[in-house]
Amino acid sequence: MSVKKDSKWKRIVFHIILLISVVIAVYPALRVFGTSLRPGDSLHSTSLAIIPDDATFDAYKTLIFDKGFLIWLRNSLLVTFFTVVIGVSLASTAGYVFSRKRFPGRKSGLTFFLLTQMFPATMLLLPMYILLAQFGLTDQTVVVPFLGMAKAHIGLIIMYSSTALPLCVWQMKGYYDTIPESLEEAALVDGLNQFQAFYKIILPLAKPALVITALFSFMTAWNEYMVARVVMTDNSLYTLPVGLTNLAGQFNTAWAEFAAASVLIMLPVMAVFLLLSRFLVGGLTLGGVKG
Amino acid sequence: MSQSDENLRFTSALSNFSIKDFWREHKFSYMMLLPAFIVVLFVVIYPFFYNFRLAFSNLNMYNMRQFIQSDQLSYIGIDNFIQIITESSFWIILLRTVAWTVINVVAHVGFGIFYAIILDRDLMFKSIYRTLLVIPWAIPQYIVVLIWKGMFNFRYGAVNLLLRKIGVPGVAWLSQASTGFSAALIVNIWLGIPFMMMIALGGLQSIDPNFYEAAEIDGASNWQQIKHITLPLLKPVMLPAVILGVVWTFNNLRVIYLLTQNTLTNKIDILVTHVYRSAFEFYRYGYAAAFSLIIFVILLVWAISFIDYINED
Questions:
Q1: Do A67 and A23 belong to one domain?
Q2: Do A124 and B43 touch (CB under 8 A)?
Q3: CATH 1.10.3720.10 region(s) of chain B?
Q4: Hey, which residues does B75 pair with through a beta bridge?
């Protein structure tokens, strides 16, 4: 890590720049929080203050007890959990061979994964919907009763794991590139097979990258709504984003509730981000150094 | 592995090629790749070819039901493509999309590297700054856009309140194309900086500090060190991120679509929002499919020439 000493004045300038930037970065999030605390009758205010004078948690109460928030939360958790598990397992294996092995089709495989990022979402959305419908994966029938998991959720899980996959594969490959190959060579000499060497030696070392990959998949599934809006038709199957945008109906939006829901959706993501921020530097290694 | 190495291996493999050996050597690689490949095939490649089919048809609201029921399409050849390219709005939207992409990515990378360089220095509280600066990335995008939409409100929005405080009259951001486009740029630039900042920070940490020490001894100024050491060494790390950044920005549906909903609607459309509207608001599926294909080809051509240009450099 390169650490450079600066003169006192320079440091003050840096602090001022950073402070202003932090305010700009954080203000919108705080603003939503403030809105969520407003009572129903004072939504339009011309004050820049965050916490309103007559703050109340009413919106949260209505949201949790009167609207379907808890069911949407369960659906989102379900879809997100499986997306992360599938995304991480597929990306960690595929990224590994892209980094370590030389086989026919390696270069084109990597390019192929990059290419998939260039398809505009609109190009995939309609065919994807028709495809899922043909496989019965837009059905609202519940298949795993005690989890409340419907066929349509399985459709979403498949979609989300694959949208995040190309980026995750590149990301994992970039990190594996930084782990010395001599480690597996030693493991192979010690009698482990290729998969064991990968699973027991390399995978634990790749933890920072795994965390980032999990984070990417988590964000994809947790935040997506363009597809979910098309696939989900039943209120009880909504994921959070779909439920949230339904709160912001065409007319007469309950802004305080909307803001409260936004806060509740944002909080887990921000918490995860803050917890993992030490992994973000170093764990994020798109592409890496080797070709 | 160098090119000649790979060639050598290729020729030796060719001279005593047998499927059995080939399979034994590469079985592990292909088995490990298979699951990822199947998923991507199912979700990306199949729809791609499906879309290809739709692009040559006149599928729309009126014959959609028939298509779902009987899989019947009436093909109209390349009419969709001709129609798109001869529309004058296509070229305007294309230009706007290019401007949108260039401004965004330059700002993302510029600010990203700028913050990374500051945060890489010896500063108090820098890990707190770093954590807080990542927050725009951590908020779900559709929420971000709706928040900013509120902040650009003429009377109650935070942006105008702030402007009035410093004595500038408020701007009706979302009622004209030019200010609306600036608003969209502000939102998207705000959104994209943290990603580039983190990539650049990771890159900075991989730079050997000895380079700086050597430069210091040679009497290089801070600025010279950044120009001659930091930026060139960051290049390989930033390149994949820049390529992805361009593709993502070019295809960014949410920011412009959500920001202009019920206000500017199609006045500041970029290519993808135009397609989304054609498909899901006007139900011109065939036209939208052809348009999507054109977008893909534009990006593909750009990516190939860009990567070639980089490799030659």
A1: no
A2: yes
A3: 87-282
A4: B57
Q: Which of A16, A33, A56 is the last residue of a domain?
A: A56
The whole-angstrom distance between A146's CA and the closest CA on chain B is 27
Interface contact B251, partner A, CB < 8 A: yes
Q: Is B135 on the interface with A (CB under 8 A)?
A: yes
What value of ipTM does the predicted structure carry?
Answer: 0.79
Q: Which band of pLDDT confidence, cut at 50, 70 and 90, is reported for residue A2?
A: very low
Number of neighbouring beta carbons within 10 Å of residue B4: 8
Q: How many domains is chain A built from?
A: 2
Per the structure, the complete domain to which residue A196 belongs is given by 63-283
Q: Is residue A1 part of a domain?
A: no
The answer to whether the Cβ–Cβ distance between A119 and B276 falls below 8 Å is no
In this structure, the answer to whether residues A14 and A75 fall within a common structural domain is no
CB contact under 8 A, A266 and B209: no
Architecture of domain B87-282: Orthogonal Bundle (1.10)
**Hey, are the CB atoms on B35 and A90 less than 8 Å from each other?**
yes
Predicted TM-score (pTM) of the model is 0.83
Domain-embedded: residue A194: yes
Is A213 found in the same domain as A71? yes
Taking contacts as CB-CB distances below 8 angstroms, the residues of chain B near A169 are: 36
Instruction: Using 50 as the pLDDT threshold, list the residues of chain B that sit under it.
Output: 1
Residue range B208-233, pLDDT digits in tens: 788 888 888 888 888 888 888 888 88
